[in-house]
Amino acid sequence: MMTAVTMIPLMGGVALAVDYAELIRERQETLNALDAAGIATAQQIVGGATDAEAKAYAKTFFEANLKHVLPANTTLTVTLPNNNAGGGTLVLEAALKYQPYFLPAAVALLGGTPGQTNVNFSARSEIRLKNTLEVSLVLDNSGSMAELGHGSNQVRFDLLKSAAKQLVDQLSGQAQLMKQISKPVQFSLVPFAASVNIGSANKDAAWMDQDGISPIQHENFDWTTMTQGNSPWPQRYVEKVGSIWYARGTDWDPTQKDKPLTRFSLYKWMQRISACSSTDSSGNCRSNATYTYAPIASWSGCVESRPYPYNIQDTAPSTSTPATLFVPMFAPDETDYTDGYSRPANNNWHLDVTSGTDNPTRQKYMPKYFNYGNKVTPAYGNNAGPNTSCSTTAITPLTDVSTSAGATTVKNAIDAMVDVGATNVPEGMAWGWRALSSTAPFTEGRPETQRGNDKVLIVLTDGANTYYTPDSVSAQSYSGTYYRSGGNDLSGNKAIYSALGYLAYGSQTKPFGSTYTYGRPFLGTSTSVSKSDYSNANYTKAMSEHLATLCDNAKAANIIVMTIALDLDSTNTAEAAQMNALKTCSSDSRFRKDPTDPSKPLKLFWNSTGASLSDDFKEIGNELSNLRIVS
What we know:
- The chain has eleven helices and 15 strands.
- It is α/β, with parallel strands linked by helices and about 625 residues long.
- Among the domains are: about 1-130; about 135-200 and about 390-470 and about 535-625, 3-Layer(aba) Sandwich (Rossmann fold).
- The strands form five sheets. The protein has a six-stranded mixed sheet, sandwiched between helices. A three-stranded antiparallel sheet has the order 1-2-3, with helices on one face. It has a two-stranded antiparallel ribbon with strand order 6-7.
- The longest helix has about 45 residues, at about 1-45.
- The two termini are about 60 Å apart.
């Protein structure tokens, strides 16, 4: 009898143990099946499954993995990642009804309430689809891209355009399957040469220097020469208040009078005679003729490189830090004088109106820009006159290529690129980063803190960074015997004008005060870069230092950097250095190992030739595709 009495609690304990063990097993099986179904269903979504197909697949996969759990005792709820931020998440929730073997004690002890015949519990699995990409194509548009690609009978530029469009098509095809995700893959295009064109439509943007407060806004301009009584506009003069130059006098248009003067002011108020009713035998407009006026040039959209360190950062522009604002490029008119070899200045595009013989003064003398002349003259366009060194097409902001219209927009922009100019890789890469950014000047990028999104910079160049001295490139046509020696540098600029300005400023006030006696290319460089060596090789060294720091900054901001050296010669010292710099700049692959050392990740660097470029871009496409797998 005692044994029987003792057996009752013992058997009860055994019963509870059995129920508890079974509950734990069924719960774990349900969780495992839920997780497995989540990952599998996410892969189906990535593959383009419809809403109904994804939900049906999730249910089938979940129930097939339940093993000891009766599907009838479960309820599965699937929430698809339609338009969820950050690429979206797939949420699977399962409810399980467990029916204990021994009631009612088991129900109470296992978490139920009196009167229940089963124990209910729920589980949740959330799968983030790591399948959104923002890719910036930073492509060399310099003049050397017109050369034949190594191992190919096509020019490099044509090979590049074909390979880049192939990459867009590859990723676009995958993106179009992503019916659950908003903007799964976006591309931007940043053509670069000596400068970068951000688009003239951004003229009035708040991040452009609208008040003339940037320290580089008035480089090469001496507004003090615009004094009252000056010819040809006696009442068109200026006054400096604080750091801003204001237009004063009745000869200014009412829309400019008493407003800040900037480079935009020059583009607007530099006028020419576009037509006149009668001319003399020399083509001069007669004094009694009827005149029509028009601007000498319109801003083509290129901007100056910001002063160090903002040239190699993605710091958002702000009026509280004027050096972060962007300034339109304006190539100053250089002296009319020729040197002893009859060489003109490289960028003499307007008639000087001062009689002084000081060439730096002639270059920065402001009244000349307001001289209409007396002949009908055409306007200057891209890469000419004040737009000298602005040779590229404008940036294409991030564009959704999951639509055929978006993919076509990007591919048309690739086709529209032109190959002319020097090579400024740091400027191109900096703008590629800005195109990916969520902050101004381009704001199409997702927030940097958003999970499930990768920002990728793809940088391609076919040469070392170049910045030219005045005598290293051909000047305007002239009849001297030393035409291969380039143009003169009577103004002491030490460089051809482009996005980094000049290397020296003659006798004018330095834009950064007395601390610096040299131009922007040398700012922030190490002691290994001589600040008095005005040679192409030293300029390349300075730009390469900027590139190295820029690469580190971008990667520290979680930008994935892929670099391509196209047709660079390892036996050429400058090109070998550029190849090494590009490889060092690149990020590590997340998926592939270095075949020479399997313990290390493979660098995302391609040493391409014209013959291999298409295949290398396919490899890049595969790398980008891997970034879109489910995490």
